[in-house]
Automatic annotation (TrEMBL), chains A, B:
Species of the source: Shewanella holmiensis
Catalytic activity: uroporphyrinogen III + 4 H(+) = coproporphyrinogen III + 4 CO2
Keyword set, alphabetical order: Cytoplasm, Decarboxylase, Lyase, Porphyrin biosynthesis
Stated name of the protein: Uroporphyrinogen decarboxylase
One BP term from GO: protoporphyrinogen IX biosynthetic process from glutamate
Lineage of origin: Bacteria, Pseudomonadati, Pseudomonadota, Gammaproteobacteria, Alteromonadales
Subunit record text: Homodimer.
GN (gene name): hemE
EC number, UniProt record: 4.1.1.37
Amino acid sequence: MAELKNDRYLRALLKQPVDRTPVWMMRQAGRYLPEYKATRAEAGDFMSLCKNQDLACEVTLQPLRRYDLDAAILFSDILTVPDAMGLGLYFETGEGPRFQRPTDTIDAIKKLCVPDPEDELGYVMRAVSTIRRELKGEVPLIGFSGSPWTLATYMVEGGSSKTFEKIKKMAYEEPATLHMLLDKLADSVILYLNAQVANGAQSLMIFDSWGGALSHHAYREFSLRYMQKIVDGLTREAEGRTVPVTLFTKGGGLWLEAMAETGCDALGLDWTVDIGDARRRVGHKVALQGNMDPSVLYASPARIRQEVEQILASYGEGTGHVFNLGHGIHQHVNPEHAGAFINSVNELSVKYHK
Amino acid sequence: MAELKNDRYLRALLKQPVDRTPVWMMRQAGRYLPEYKATRAEAGDFMSLCKNQDLACEVTLQPLRRYDLDAAILFSDILTVPDAMGLGLYFETGEGPRFQRPTDTIDAIKKLCVPDPEDELGYVMRAVSTIRRELKGEVPLIGFSGSPWTLATYMVEGGSSKTFEKIKKMAYEEPATLHMLLDKLADSVILYLNAQVANGAQSLMIFDSWGGALSHHAYREFSLRYMQKIVDGLTREAEGRTVPVTLFTKGGGLWLEAMAETGCDALGLDWTVDIGDARRRVGHKVALQGNMDPSVLYASPARIRQEVEQILASYGEGTGHVFNLGHGIHQHVNPEHAGAFINSVNELSVKYHK
């Protein structure tokens, strides 16, 4: 493997000194980029793009050619694991992801098998190793998975949901059934993420997109508990370096203390939290990633720069901050505005690392 | 006016002693009740129901006939004010509310007039006075409005939104334009709510459904600031009693301290906050309303009872708690489960008020 030339991202996650605040963007390989749309059109549909290692590598690298980013993230979907369990993932235009065979009964859940990451998920591993090779050590590669709770919401509901009627009914009426599902998912995610590391991922992130839909207590029981299990089961070192783990619960700003207790290295923040407050609450334990509202990218470069400065100032001096958006970049953002965002972080953050 | 027989709800909001924790449900007059669906079918569409004072009164009273509730809430829509400003509110099946004439330019905003509550909104006032009369003093009547920010999201986007692209672009690019809109809305809401009090409302609630979509700083600038203006402008006494004011920002659990500073009497909580934590943070200043996840009503009566007990125990002894759901009751809930919820609060809360 080529030696890593830029390790700012990994160092900041471990709270080691850096020369400036590292930056990347969630969903940085995405529809706001015309070159992404072209490659996706070539692939056909979204899953064909994920399953073609060369095209998945191509879209992963596209934002790095445009912008001075400090990390690459594997191009894949959060729902690969349930798909590999046999649920039949498909995408309906304008409807988001759906499953042909939802898993909303105890019998269906009992039948689920933990997928072999090198077999049913082999296409992801081939993408990881291809991307890692093609990165040529420029920046580290982030591997990722959806959280068990988040995966389970799609599996039980059959797709996206506003009120999570079926899975919440299961949580309150048949908790043992849901725990069986979540436990299988946690086991699957551990194998999946460890295989990503074995194939070249240098950092891991767990996306808990829907943990914020739970109550204070239900979050601990149905989401955090299984992210804890994953953190405990992950390979934390590879190629002689620590593999940092970041947990991100969208809408989880109230629960940062509990998340930091899991032993993860960093927490992702959405934009509802003031990052300075978050640092005071948990910054002695974990690094923080975030947290500009992606909608700020609709504004002018000057306004974007102002917002970046505000977030940097709120975090304050020293390491432990990875700049990012508070959620994935929106598809209608002007790519030049994304560039203004990244340049602003790169320029303005130097003074916080003297 | 008939003398008020049950003032538990008003007393708890003012942190005066009560014999048990008062309870009501957001959207208690709603589609989960067959009698509501029958009346709505009679009215035709949703706005015709709102505009017919006798039918609006009928659906307001329906849940009180079924359940031992401690408050009634005016049956109306949160978007009556922008509709009265001339935007042309309509409802598309499965699409939620929409406006025929969105207000997304400075010229459109400049032309907006503050509606006269007794004229353009006279139908709401007639509903308030009819309901108040027909309540015959059984329980107090809650009046309400959407918050300026929440109203503005629908006005600028033209309807519901997931990412609030247009209004956030306005917030970051043309803040003065948005402030002009929010200021007109705050003035309108003050007149609207004061007129509701003049017509018989005994308590007021401001629903900030979309404040939680904002960043920490943007929430203060674009949502809270205008709720503050409203709190400052409201009639706080009528018929020799205090008219308590409750602010509810869904997803605002991180910002309770700032909300409590407005001088309101109570805060509504969604289910992501532990109510005991909220009490420790702000309970010396304000009463708290909430906060069971409405999805718990999908579970069995025994499980509902358990959840009620947990929330009561978390709040602890003493007054200052109005039990409610953390959001409106869902349409597919079994009305018997709503009854189990209300009975559980009534029975289990007595021991916290010795």
